[in-house]
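Please produce the structure of this protein holding manganese (II) ion.
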Amino acid sequence: MSEKHIELIMAPPEPHFVGDGFRVHTFIPSSYRVDMHRTNPFIMMDYNSKHYFSPTQTPRGVGVHPHRGFETVTIAYKGRVAHHDSSGGGGVIGEGDVQWMTAASGVLHKEYHEEKFSQEGGEFQMVQLWVNLPAKDKMSNPKYQAISNDKMARIPVGDNSDSFIELIAGSYNGVSGPADTFTPLHMSNAKLKAGTSAKYAFPDSHSTCLVAIEGNITVNGSSVNQDHFCLFDRKGEEFEIKADTDAIVLVLSGEPIPEPIAAHGPFVMNSRDELVQAFNDFNEGKFGELAD
Ligand code: MN
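Below is the modeled complex.
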């Protein structure tokens, strides 16, 4: 196996608001060489870097909207997110938890700051990813996986017993994570004490990237600062993350889905006709019902 080089390190782009509750930097797609084909099956990544929200009686968030053709994965690092969808799924995720919603044939959902968090205010930090589905699964039934932090596999790394890989999906050193996925992919958080290193190996055909969620790290000898995104070259398999300070690093790697992508707004399909169908089905109320 050979070293996997870094293709680019990106500072967080200007943030924008999604609804009034999510102040995000969009890393995927971004204007600079990172489009959804390059990072497929990860076709969208919004990163809410640490942001203080003041107390409010009316929870901030984003109202009812549809999705079809992919999965939304929300990883909460700070604060709490409440979520409801038209298939009856929903719940609250807190610090360290993940909600994995398979929109597939279509759901309506809404995403808000949890009520008590809203009333108290506080620091909020999260990632939302869109994971593409293969054509054969795009119209399967919606489902919802609530992956609380205690369900994640923890694999110790280095000599420091406080450093570990927290596995959400895929595998690390032969251990598997809890999420059911439609295509082979890896999703984990490295939680590393300063001075600790973690090694990774992924197939060279997979799309691989990371985000320094907390702290500063060195990746194969290059510095990656807090809140920066790092995309790896396809060539090579192995890389090493060294924590320069105590650090949390989101690591993603997945097999690209070798199909055309037709994306518009909240729908990600294979063809324009399927997008038109999605809009028609949505307008005809075929995505179910969900109250504001
Ligand atoms: Mn959504």
